[in-house]
Amino acid sequence: IYFIMDEPGTLVVQETGQDGQPVETRRRLSTLMNKDTSRAFSEVSKALGLNLSHLHVAEVSEKKMLAQNFNAWLQDRTKKGFLDLQDKGLLEIPSFVPGLHYDCTGLDVQFNDIKQVTNINGLTKLNTLDVSHNLLSGVDCLCEEIGDLPILHELLLGDNQLENVPDIIPKLKELRWLDLQDNKIDYVPEEICDLEKLVVLDLQHNEIPYLPNRIHDLYNLTTLLLDGNILLQPLPETFYSLCNLQHLSMRATALDTFPVKLCEMGQLK
């Protein structure tokens, strides 16, 4: 779909019909006559039949909005493959996002009102997904399609309303960085230790009383952040087998004695 300004206040929409032939329609857009960019963008998206009303505050000028094709506008919002949709009042990931599979390596939807992650199918180049500071809750808040992302290395879910680790997470075998800080998680399942490539695990400021016994299976882990948890039980013996662990933080926990065996982990910094 292409949209161009033919004369003041008129939008010419050029698209491909079902028979493969070009179809041109003309729409009158009154808001294009004033300086209200957000209203103009909203009306353009409505005229095109695109579900983009949640992007009415997009940082884009009228001239750029009207002079370029829609994909070009998205690419402009995507810097080096990273699509930034922070703080747009989104209730879900926009439906156009799967169409960016050819160059979207990162998706940032922080500071929105998203309750469930959907519309990410086909993003085969996605490396980083940041859904921090939203309203995620429940073990099914991440859609099954996330498991089909072949090179998802960073998943950031901090400051949501999670009480449990989402079911799909242990299946994300390529994860290197998992951020679950500032939630209400009170249990870390043993299955999370299936993430053998994990390098950074951030569990700060949850309600976790103990670590899984299989923690040693995270043998590539270099950073573990546990600040602000309950940690009523001592670290499991298997913990001390984490030979690559370099950074460990356990401030503001309920541990009443220092784990002396940490002194034997010479690689800790």
Question: What topology does this entry show?
Answer:
Layout: E1 2-7, E2 10-16, E3 22-28, H1 37-47, H2 62-67, H3 70-77, E4 78-79, E5 82-84, E6 106-108, E7 128-130, E8 154-156, E9 177-179, E10 200-202, E11 223-225, E12 247-249
Structural class: mainly beta
Q: Which residue ranges are poorly predicted, with pLDDT under 50 across at least 5 consecutive positions?
A: 1-10, 28-41, 46-69
For the largest beta-sheet, the strand count, sense and barrel status come to: 9 strands, mixed
For this structure, the quaternary state is single chain
Q: What sequence of helices (H) and strands (E) makes up the elements?
A: EEEHHHEEEEEEEEE
- Biggest sheet strand order reads 4-5-6-7-8-9-10-11-12
Number of helices: 3
Shape: elongated
Q: Roughly what fraction of the amino acids lie in strands?
A: 15-25%
Please give the radius of gyration in angstroms: 23 Å
Percent of residues in helices: under 10%
Q: What's the mean pLDDT score?
A: 79
Report how far apart the termini are: 55 Å
Number of strands: 12
